[in-house]
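Chapter summary example.
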Amino acid sequence: MRFTLSSSVLNSKLSTLSKVIASKNSMQILDCFLFEISSGQLTITATDNSNIMKCNVELSESDGDGAFCVHNHIIQMAVKEMAEQPITFEVNVDDNSIMMTYQNGSYRFVGQSADDFPKIQPLSSPYTEASISAGALAQNIQRTLFATSSEELHLVMTGIYFDLKEDSLNIVASDGYKLVRNILYSCKTELPAAFLLPKKPASLLRNMLDASDENPITMRFNDKQAEFSTPNGYLSCTLIEGRYPKYNNVIPTDNPNIVTVDRKSFMSALRRVLPFANEATGLVKFRLSLNNIELNAEDINFATSAHEDIICEYNGVPMSIGFKGAAMYEIMNNISSDDIIIELGDPSRAGVIHPTEQPEGEDVLMLIMPMLLNE
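The structure predicted for these 375 residues follows.
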């Protein structure tokens, strides 16, 4: 079996797929990529037994069909520093010997049998199917992933919740201190359904998709497994089991004090005062008055403090409210509009944040819980 493909294309696909492979595996075959050649197309697969990811590559030349496995470190080290050029593989599927030839040299190594590679378990019925723009899905995962929890004790909070309704798809994440809710009105279903996507496959899916790609991606899921399919890629993963909190119940709907502020100016001021905040709490005090936000951070243990004034649009009641500065910065960093709106009630109520200009066909909302002020 002989085939030829671009070195840069191969390197790009291997780099994406390598993120699936765990650093330590109980079976040697899980350290490998599966190469399958059929009808002039190469399909490369990687798995950690919970997540399976595939990428498709059109071959420049192909002579014969077949399959083999190769260790991820061997093939990646061979191609990652290589300039753009054609690479030709000659594979003997009887003994899995591989010769890789390129412009300035060649490599010879031994692979493993494709028969040993884990097989994909088909999605069992009944399952729900929906279609969504690849770019929209990538952008919403990127916008949401930072709000997931890293505490394994609350497993359901470590993933991204996909809540498919009759009129929209809600993509939600929260760690209990901050929350992100994205509504996509272009994705809907006749029968409501939901699933909880773990953080690792969510990151893999984001890396697999192009944020500028408007082509549809097919999403299928049941109560244990989800599949995402595009013409050039595929991801199957095991879902988190458990009941996700009723996220809409924690979003205030009557915060009357409205702040409109330039996002980049706000982020710059936050970045400057954050080093002066208490290392344990990260508390930054927001003092609001007419068309002004005063940011205050201090650490009495080291006798350091900082404050900055930011011009804004605000004519609500004067208020002092505390937030975790790093969490507020993360929220600002994951909104793309020039200006943001912050809706506040009182110092004990969560702040609701959203862009002044929503993405087309979407509704982006973020929430941050306040911190207690000793005043």
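To summarize the output: Residues 29 and 205 are 23 Å apart (CA to CA).
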